[in-house]
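Bug #77: duplicate submission created two jobs. Keeping one. Sequence:
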Amino acid sequence: MPNDAFGHPQPNSRTEGAPEAAVATRGFATRAIRTGQDPDRTTGATIVPVYQTATFTQDAVGVHKGFDYSRSGNPTRSALEAQLADLESAKFAVAYGSGMAAANGASFSFLRAGDHIVATKDLYGGTHRLFANVFPRYGITTTFVEMCDLEETRAAIRDNTKLIWVETPTNPLLKIIDIAAIAALKRPGQIVAVDNTFATPYWQNPLALGADVVMHSTTKYLGGHSDVIGGVVMTNDADLHQQFAYQQNAVGAVPGPWDAYLVIRGSKTLALRMREHERNAHAVAAFLESRDDVSVVYYPGLASHQHHELAKKQMRGFGGIVSFRHRAGADAALAFAKSTELFNLATSLGGVESLVCSPWTMTHGSVPPEQKIALGIGQDLVRLSVGIEDAPDLIADLTQALDRARVSTKVFASV
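Kept job's structure:
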């Protein structure tokens, strides 16, 4: 088995004895279920065991079976890293205890005081907070740009720019950024990292488009059941992987073995779930476009989406997130969010259950109001994480919630 940065063995990414040609042609679902998941050699357990241990007994001083302390390496976590690396067609993966720990690891591992980041303007509020409020304490600055505009992006790149951070589709406005075009802008020594959480490796593979690093919040679609917090960073660059693994161990931002196990289990059904998420999201988006109380629908699978053609070129599918604006404004949007029955009012996304949130207050609450307004993240904006319930039930719920919001805001206006 190959070793990680600390000499710990990593599970083989293929079944032992299987011909290389056969492995190379295996489909996504097969790899999700099989990579890193060989039967346990000691007991024959079909499912990777949860190695719930802090330390490992050594045969002699410095002589062990590849693992010595679970912060530095754990077999369950190694199985997860092998599985997810294969799904992104990456050579290396480093798992973290949260999506934000992964975002930090994917950047802070190699950045130094005086370095500069160019980042997508329209991105997750937690990532914005990290770049805008935390990194400046260490002398690392960020320029946020409209990355759909290649000239604006090119102009923002400086001699001391070390990281170009891309999020596509963006959160919450679902803009599509041309990964290959952004990768073509980088200069020697610069890294292009892509947050691929919304698309998942089932619909989009940024490394194949020229990115150097891919990051996911495994809390979302990879875990898929809203019961685990985690993150992962993947790359084909051995030097970058060494830096990620060193920082992961030094800082200790690791997932526990149960967290790793839950993401392994969730990722096995990613292909099935993503197909249903997309089917339902497309139905929901089309329904919302038909409503006269909805002014704009943001979903890259719609022909009306401004980046629909790029999404078709860059992605194999369009995902399960739909955002929209309520024509009647903030009060109506808030009334709608409180009126859904199947769509739980909650932060997060990517679980089997449908969720609704107000980005202004919830996912982007840490972004200053004037910046949210400039980005177009108003209080009239609603984000839906469309689950895998029956689509007619979801549309019926949206119908009654929109109708109730229409009535309640009329009452509110007359008071």
